[in-house]
Amino acid sequence: MNRKTLVLPAVVGLLAPVLAACGGSDSGSGDGDAIVVGTTDRFSASKETPAPLDPAYAYDVGLWNVLRQTTQTLMAQPRGGGEPVPDAAQKCGFTDTGNERYACTLRDGLKFANGDPVTAEDVKYSIERAIAIDADTEVASLLNTVDTVETQGDREVIFHLKTADATFPYKLSTPVSGIVNPDQYPKDKLRDGWELDGSGPYTMKAEVKDDILTKAVFTKNPNYKGSAEVNNDKVEMVFFDDAEAMGDAIDKGDIDVMTRAMTPEQVQKLAKATDGDVSLVEVSGLEIRYLAFNTDAPEVKDTAVRKAVAQLINRSELVSTVYGSQAQPLYSMVPAGITGHSNSFFNKYGDPSVAKAKAMLEEADISTPVKLTLNYTTDHYGAATKQEFEQLQKQLNDSGLFDVDIKGTPWTKFRKAELNREYAVFGMGWFPDFPDADSFIAPFLDKNNTLNSPYENKEIINTLIPESRAEADRLSAVDVLTEIQDTTAKDVPLIPLWQGKQYVATRDDVTGAAYLLNASSTLQLWELGRGVSD
């Protein structure tokens, strides 16, 4: 196959995928003609996290990508991006001018995979359950504008909101809003283990070893009614220890598709190849990476320290050294391609400057070098994370103003320590809950934020976020969103670093890979099929 460009419908924030390195075909080693998808996402059940797949608990892009295959939501993000569309619902919409009353009608004859009918009461139960359980992942914060849920008959659900929330349709497309069967999910506690049930495109069977999920087998749900067209009967998702093992598997034909997270070297190799059995699909994405601060920690409590770090980081050097063309510098928590994006950190700090950073610290009477430890996770955001933090360490230490160590920790321990505020500075990544600026602001700056950050700005929380959500026309919210980003650059509870692209690699008898991931990194396994590409 010759290298080619695949043109998709024009959508804001989504570029046409680019295919490279196409050749002959082999099938994966799944059960029968199952399509086998590899990922380096790793999930474990433990005493601290006994219910990783409960929709009321899970708040991680990898876990959500398991849930989305089985647990149906009223709304769904469409294959090419854009406004959410009805899925379990036949129709949904605001019924008032103030965006505070949202009504949905379920599809007629909707059933769970086991044959039980899906009713409006089940929707009410599911939403109220997630809010009541209020898991420590803070995923329930996505539903914090819900006041009450009302049902009328078996198919009508009405959400009464505390305040206007134009983003609410998006929130109903996230797995925390997934519809669960009351017979399988207890009302006041999480469902432990690896069982997962719903009314989505697939049923799931988990294969587990030593409390670690090793494979998820998705089988087409004959009862599914929704917006997705399911192009296969079975998909197996295999969880690898690292990208190298995943790459070996696709080379051998043991898997058909390779998703997150490939190494920069793997992407470069596939992009340069002109023949072979594996194709590379590149999709513009909304993944971001950032540094976060525990603003109560003694090392960084003074804003001048955080500002000095922001003044010194050279994003262009960081990206070119570690990621090359696979990422771009980011100067706001809201990435490029999202309405409301503003380069607030560049506007505030300009180009990296040792002299300016030194003046900030001297004015605050802070002795140098400032000792800091930058913490990162070793096994959650890809193999290049360590190299990224080595580069950040070098930039800060070369200034002479900081004495920086770096420390890597496995995700399960890292996330717990971060939530317990054990780190002064730590690196995180973010995949949006939905493609709107609110999903890059509220999770970090609102009450009950996902970082458990002590930083609180009352104007952002009480005025600016509600004002932005009141604007159904998101262009009308740009001024408010810009003010939030400017305040973040001034107070520096977070420092955005870069925005990344997404990649999928497939053996060339697999179709649908161009739509496997949308701009929000939502995995859509139903798009995959078998066929002959040309």
Automatic annotation (TrEMBL):
Q: Which UniProt keywords apply?
A: Signal, Transport
**InterPro entries from the entry?**
Peptide/Ni-bd, SBP_5, SBP_5_dom
In terms of one coarse class, where is the protein primarily found?
other
Q: Which residues form the signal peptide?
A: 1-20
| This protein's record includes keyword Transport | yes
| Residue ranges annotated for the Solute-binding protein family domain, each copy included | 83-450
Give the subcellular location. Cell envelope
Highest taxon of source: Bacteria
| Residue runs in coiled coils | none
So what family is this one in?
Belongs to the bacterial solute-binding protein 5 family.
Q: Would you tell me the protein name for this molecule?
A: ABC transporter substrate-binding protein
Starting at the broadest rank, the lineage of the source organism is: Bacteria, Bacillati, Actinomycetota, Actinomycetes, Kitasatosporales
